[in-house]
Write a structure and sequence with these properties.
Number of helices: 6
CATH class: Alpha Beta
Bound molecules: inosinic acid
Strand content: 25-35%
Oligomer: single chain
Distance between the termini: 14 Å
Length: 184
């Protein structure tokens, strides 16, 4: 089985990637070495830079994942600042910001950066459209899962395999797996 090093400090992302990629014949090994995160308005350059940096550091093929929640009524906030906003405001205060909003549309985006040492990174994007719930629901998952709803259920209310069959991360990782299967 092919093995890819997933550079991330987030064990939830690793579990999801394992569940998504192992049926496709790809093993995932976590490495927590970290990488510098660019300040950009989009996820792709952040993922590309991180993947190149980590591939050269570890002298191995690697992937990284940069994700973000883009809320339409808030002008796409928090977007690339999702980690900072989650750590400072958290789900309750994001819901407070959304209190009077009728438009609850949001997109969860994932950019998987993949790179081999000395090469340019490739980025595989994946998006899922959903809505911001009125209140937090469900204990599964992590991060914004309890407030991000797809087809009436929050990610926090879904079984792992349900989230992993439609999430932004699933869609991005599927593209990476298909590309690898082409013989790259
Ligand atoms: P990052 O990709 O680790 O920078 O993630 C940005 C923020 O979005 C962090 O607060 C994560 O916890 C959160 N996040 C990333 N992926 C997911 C997800 O699949 N569900 C819920 N929250 C997520």
């Amino acid at each position: 089985m092919r093995k890819i090093i997933f550079v991330t400090g987030n064990p939830h992302k690793v579990r999801e990637a394992e569940e998504i990629l192992s049926p496709l014949g790809i093993n995932v090994e976590q490495n927590n070495c970290g990488y510098p995160e660019l300040q950009e308005d989009e996820l792709s350059p952040i993922a590309a830079f991180g993947a190149e940096w980590a591939a050269n550091l570890l002298d191995n093929e690697v992937m990284v994942d940069d994700s973000g929640l883009f809320i339409e009524a808030l002008g796409e906030f928090p977007g690339p600042y999702s980690a900072y906003v989650f750590d400072t405001l958290g789900n309750k205060r994001v819901l407070k910001l959304m209190e009077d909003e009728i438009n609850r549309r949001a997109v969860f985006r994932c950019a998987i950066g993949y790179c081999r040492p000395g090469e340019k990174a490739l980025v595989f994007p994946g998006d899922v459209e959903g809505e911001i719930s009125k209140e937090m629901r469900g204990n599964a998952g992590f991060g914004y899962d309890p407030i991000f709803e797809v087809n009436g259920m929050t990610f926090g209310e879904m079984e792992d395999n349900e989230k992993n069959s439609l999430s932004h991360r699933y869609r991005a990782l599927l593209k990476l797996a298909e590309w690898l299967k082409e013989g790259h």
